[in-house]
Amino acid sequence: MKFLLALAFIGATVTALSATQARGQSGRPMPSDTTVYMIVQEPPAFVGGKEALFQFIQANSKYPVNSKKGPLVQLRLLIEKDGSVSEVKTIYTDVSEELTQEANRIGRTMPRWIPGSQDGRLLRAYAVVPIRFTNGK
Prior knowledge:
Layout: H1 2-23, E1 36-37, H2 49-60, E2 65-66, E3 72-79, E4 85-93, H3 97-108, E5 116-118, E6 121-133
Parallel strand pairs: 1-6
Antiparallel strand pairs: 2-6, 3-4, 3-6, 5-6
């Protein structure tokens, strides 16, 4: 009987500690994981692959784009665990400010991606997207 009471006490203590850790010391819920990864086993991918990404860029750009040659803007996108794009940043450009702004606008209008993952766990991860304009200077 004492053994069962001790077991029940231990179980209740573990449950209470787990609840405290999940909620933090103040009793408020702890923030979700905000870590962003640069390198993951499965990097974020545009739904449909690279060709679909180029088609999206081409269809949404106000200026002519090229998939292989031309002045370049590289965007770094933060792809959330749900596939949404939450941050767009220019990391390289050799085009005018107007085209750099256009590339950023395209990045902000992107649909959901397939999020990056590590060991089957979805993660917040960066993706780099090159956009080449036909005439960019």
